[in-house]
Specification:
The protein is globular, with a radius of gyration of 15 Å. Strands 1-2-3-5-4 form a 5-stranded antiparallel beta sheet. A hairpin with a 3-residue loop joins strand 1 and strand 2. The N terminus is likely disordered. By secondary structure, it is of the alpha+beta class. The chain has one domain: HIT-like (HIT family, subunit A, 2-Layer Sandwich). It has 4 helices and 5 strands, in the order H-H-E-E-E-H-E-E-H. It binds adenosine monophosphate. The site of adenosine monophosphate has 13 residues, from loops.
């Protein structure tokens, strides 16, 4: 039952659906017909990015067969772009989904030794000035 509710096209209370709809702002990195990437508002590391499907799916595993390959290709495109721009080989990633119930993949440029999942450390909020500057540097649209 919950699954059916989670698979609706858009959830009015979903923060990522609101970003897709342009109802709340984001520091946009990449956009195409089906996917959007933007900076995480509470980054673990500089350039922490979230890649999402525009349509609301609860989990990455709920994307249909025809989109899942495109999804990974978009993540790869962004990761390789970051490798060039940020001059690092290390783009870490994870799929979690605890806080926001809309499928997303985290990308972390050069997070070696900088991420501790537990205990969850308090992260700072990205200011609009920082976010704009960074997004301009990393943007791939
Ligand atoms: P999780 O669901 O645990 O994989 O994490 C969700 C991520 O979304 C967290 O890292 C949050 O900082 C991030 N987040 C939540 N709201 C926003 C927002 N409005 N803009 C950008 N990132 C967000």
């Amino acid at each position: 039952m919950t699954k059916q509710l989670d698979l609706v096209e858009s959830k009015t209370d979903c923060v990522f659906c609101k970003i897709v709809a342009g109802e709340i702002p984001c520091f946009k990195i990449y956009e195409d017909e089906n996917f959007l990437a933007f900076l995480d508002i509470n980054p673990w590391v500089e350039g922490h990015t979230l890649v999402i499907p525009k349509k609301h799916y609860r989990w990455v595993w709920d994307l249909p067969e025809n989109l899942i390959g495109q999804y990974f290709a978009v993540c790869r495109k962004i990761a390789n772009h970051y490798r060039q721009v940020l001059k690092t080989e290390f783009i870490m990633s994870y799929i979690y989904g605890w806080e926001v119930p809309h499928a997303h993949i985290h990308l972390f440029p050069d997070a070696r030794g900088k991420i501790a999942m537990y205990p969850k450390i308090k992260r700072g909020q990205l200011s609009s000035e920082e976010g704009e500057k960074l997004a301009k540097r990393l943007r791939l649209i």
